[in-house]
């Protein structure tokens, strides 16, 4: 049985290591499964819900995200890469689904509540942002996604999609929309802490290492990483827990025996932070250099990247159009 996956990112800038660990590596692996049909969406309409006054930023970010996708190995021959705003069926489907969701239900959505607080909207939350769980439900159901990869913080969004699909099918008496299953990241591939150790890696906190960062940028960021503030002298025993350098080594260093050796040495004393960071820098440079080189290669012909996105969007539109036709048929509003 074919597994249909819908996933994507809001274009708000270049993607960082948190995205790579949390989703991009998994997507590259999933596209190799011959029983999986994967749609990867650049959600520019969703990005506009809190960037309506700066559409140029969103437009530029679409290309940046596309380059990052190609750089990590997403293949347009195996995966449908498309731009959300280029699929007119999605906003139309959103309008129909909005009638199935109450304002109070949207207000109870934990993800929406958290993001409203995070962005400081208070009572001035844009209506488009407030209803984006329904827009997301339209994105997912338009492609009849059977699985949606998300982190723990996004589980309420998929749960709301399942509710909407279930209500639609019950009200209109046809099994048109699919209730998707949640795909959580593999153990140890969830959120990645930022280099300051204060929270998850994010652009807003300015604590990220980006896939497009130069070798010099990566080195500077690694050398500024949070370690153990009580590890003042090289000979002092150091703490591994909460030490960002070791967090990154656990994720990115394939030589687990070497990492354990470094942990033991650090804990008994005699291993300095500078030497440890230099080792991590070597590990990250080896991981990111081929990604950066592929990104630079694709960036030389952005016209070809746009053509790829156009082709993917046309393919995605055909699928969404079929679903929308079935939706209108079930609702009885296919008048002609």
UniProtKB/TrEMBL annotation:
InterPro entries linked to this entry: aa-tRNA-synth_I_CS, aa-tRNA-synth_Ic, Rossmann-like_a/b/a_fold, Trp-tRNA-ligase, Trp-tRNA_synthetase
Keywords: Aminoacyl-tRNA synthetase, ATP-binding, Ligase, Nucleotide-binding, Protein biosynthesis
Molecular-function GO terms, alphabetical: ligase activity
Highest rank taxon of the organism: Bacteria
Organism field: Alkalibacterium iburiense
Classification via CDD domains: TrpRS_core (cd00806)
Record SUPFAM superfamilies: Nucleotidylyl transferase (SSF52374)
Gene: trpS
Keyword Glycoprotein tagged: no
Protein name as it appears in the record: Tryptophan--tRNA ligase
Record field: transmembrane: none
Pfam family, one: tRNA-synt_1b
Keyword NAD found: no
